[in-house]
Sequence to fold (100 residues):
Amino acid sequence: MARVAADIPVASGRFASQPLVFAHIWDVTPDLDLDAIDVIQGTNMRARLGGYFGAVLVTEILTRMEADDTLVLFLPGSVPAANPKLRSLGNFTGTLVRAS
Fold:
């Protein structure tokens, strides 16, 4: 496995569950590849984000999300569309694990 650099758009919002996030994204952008989206919720956000970003960017993302409880990472292969329930936090350079 190899780690490769990638620009990852990150958005945040408030959702009761991951299935509701995916349902909302599907309603807004039905052609989007949902396999290229990572939804992060709950108490383990810092560790999950750490799989993509260094500690400084993880802290910045968590600070930018303010009172939101959900993060959505749009991985390569998905393009975030304007979305009424998700607020863009920006594009962050991180890494992805890919088969070599």
